[in-house]
Amino acid sequence: NAGVTQTPKFRILKIGQSMTLQCTQDMNHNYMYWYRQDPGMGLKLIYYSVGAGITDKGEVPNGYNVSRSTTEDFPLRLELAAPSQTSVYFCASSPPMGGGQETQYFGPGTRLLVL
Amino acid sequence: RKEVEQDPGPFNVPEGATVAFNCTYSNSASQSFFWYRQDCRKEPKLLMSVYSSGNEDGRFTAQLNRASQYISLLIRDSKLSDSATYLCVVKGNTGFQKLVFGTGTRLLVSP
Lengths: 115, 111
Known about the structure:
The structure holds 2 protein chains of 2 kinds.
Chain A: E1 4-7, E2 10-13, E3 19-25, E4 31-37, E5 44-51, E6 54-57, E7 64-66, E8 76-78, E9 87-94, E10 105-106, E11 110-114
Parallel strand pairs in A: 2-11
Antiparallel strand pairs in A: 1-3, 3-8, 4-5, 4-9, 5-6, 7-8, 9-10, 9-11
Chain B: E1 4-6, E2 11-14, E3 19-25, E4 32-38, E5 44-50, E6 55-57, E7 60-65, E8 70-75, E9 84-91, E10 99-101, E11 105-110
């Protein structure tokens, strides 16, 4: 049981380039999330999904896109990288909230540097 | 005003000391509260949930004060391995019920 896995671990992008951050979970969780964490800031929710085929925007969705074609995978797409997107990106998953199932399980993160 | 506020620290304490962190939240309708731990350059992990009646897990005690809208975490007999950033997390009660993360309080335990 690998939990939540993310690839790549680290990436350098040039301004205007595109990339996809991969996220996979093997816990059969319905809910999945993408966060970004900037130095000295709390985690900010980018997008989330409550199940395959269903996604919605979080607090900071601009510049990102997501898809959820399977329960396991939740890739995050950056179309035109900007320096403001330099951050650490965490993917997380959880069972549906309520009934004490609020624990979110995080992947190890992807460090992205946009130059 | 931030939804969740924490003192960033760092709190520097010797091994064996007792240390307490507080966190305040702005949404009085918040339903659930948690402490997560984040080691340097690692992902956050759930440390413990915070219940209205307070709860204890070994050396860790969490308290909730709804009237004053703050949450506390007490660590007794600090260990070197307790060095980390402690994130205060609050779940709202509207819409998706997303988690709101504080910026964290850094703890450094020295020998």
